[in-house]
Design brief:
347 residues; alpha/beta; Dihydrodipicolinate Reductase, domain 2; eight-stranded mixed sheet; 13 strands; globular
Length: 347
């Protein structure tokens, strides 16, 4: 299928690299509100620069559109693409409120097109093994499930673009921007949340509206308890990996980015030694922890390939809009709790 990209920034470049590597997709063009930026992007990736988004959407050869604009500016191009009959894939978060997401879902259903998200941290071999263990019930009674994103962004990062650190266009801070993939992974593995109690603050940055650190106590519908911690003010030389940790009455698994720090089960299987041999943690630094440009694109590639396969097979992709909505709903609940002095918020 032929892809068009909306947004010629850093995220658009990740999309272009992933699309060019795909087995079932080709790059058809780029549109950006700044024509000169679109032209430079087109030259870099040997593709077509459209003068406007509307012009790209009028091209009948473009079948799928990816959106890499600022988080709070996903809604308008997505709705325009949906109305044009294009399948739409949106970078995280799908949008910054569940209300906007629900409007996009309704529009996509009415047009009979697929609306999906980039949830790329689901797409690596370690996560495949982790998900299988969870689905197979290997943890016994799940008692603990937590996510930690202790990253660093300097002041220059927030100063580099007017939308960064704003409620309107970033949708939040360390949680909605940097931590959402890890929060999605937590929900993907541990299941839905019953309630949250949270506290947020901005401790190390100036002239931003949102949090640079947040901590939430989470109660899952399964009965498990856990912590979600997200930060952009925790410096380290190489950057801390994003961590997802599950434990129960019969097992514990701690994932750090794409490698395991712990893979330990009461009842061993034939695959456990191989999993430890291939995926136990070495000396890797955190992917994107200190430098957002350091994130690789192969997970985007796998994500896009799965969505295209789903479209061709007439089914919902694994990263459909309803899946992407879950992390936004949870983050909204965390913000609501924090804004109300840690009051428990039920989901």
């Amino acid at each position: 299928m032929k892809f068009g990209i909306i947004g010629a920034g850093m995220i658009g470049e990740f999309h272009a690299k992933a699309i060019r590597a795909m087995s079932n997709g080709t790059l058809g063009g780029i549109a950006d509100r700044a024509p000169e930026r679109a032209q430079a992007f087109a030259e870099k990736f040997s593709t077509t620069a459209y003068a406007t988004v509307t012009e790209m959407l009028a091209d009948s050869t473009i079948e799928v559109v990816t959106i890499g604009t600022p988080s709070g500016a996903h809604f308008d191009p997505a709705m325009e693409a949906i109305e044009a009959g294009k399948h739409v894939i949106i970078e995280k978060p799908l949008e910054v409120t569940t209300k906007r997401i629900d409007s996009m879902v309704d529009a996509a259903k009415a047009q009979g097109v697929t609306l999906a998200a980039v949830l790329n941290r689901r797409f690596h071999p370690g996560m495949d093994a982790f998900k299988k263990a969870a689905d197979d019930g290997r943890f016994g009674k799940l008692t603990s499930a937590s996510a930690y994103v202790k990253w660093y962004r300097d002041q220059a990062y927030y100063d580099s673009a007017g939308w960064r650190g704003t409620w309107a266009l970033d949708g939040g801070g360390a949680l909605m921007n940097q931590s959402i993939h890890t929060i999605d992974a937590l929900l993907y593995l541990a299941g839905p949340v019953q309630s949250v109690q949270a506290n947020t603050a901005c401790l190390a940055h100036t002239d931003i509206e949102v949090e640079d650190i947040a901590v939430a106590i989470v109660e899952f519908k399964s009965g498990a308890r856990g912590i979600i911690e997200g930060s952009t003010c925790t410096w380290s030389k190489d950057g801390h990996p994003a961590r997802v940790q599950l434990a129960g009455t019969e097992g514990s698994v701690f994932l750090a980015d794409e490698a395991f720090e712990i893979w330990d089960f009461m009842n061993e299987t034939a695959d456990d030694d191989s999993i430890r041999a291939h995926f136990m943690k070495g000396a890797e630094s955190g992917l994107g922890a200190n430098d957002p440009t350091a994130i690789n694109f192969y997970q985007h590639q796998r994500n896009f390939e799965e969505i295209v396969t789903a479209i061709q097979e007439g089914r919902e992709p694994s990263t459909c809009a309803s899946e992407a909505r879950k992390s936004v709903e949870l983050i909204q609940a965390i913000y609501k709790s924090a804004q109300n002095n840690g009051e428990k918020v039920e989901l």
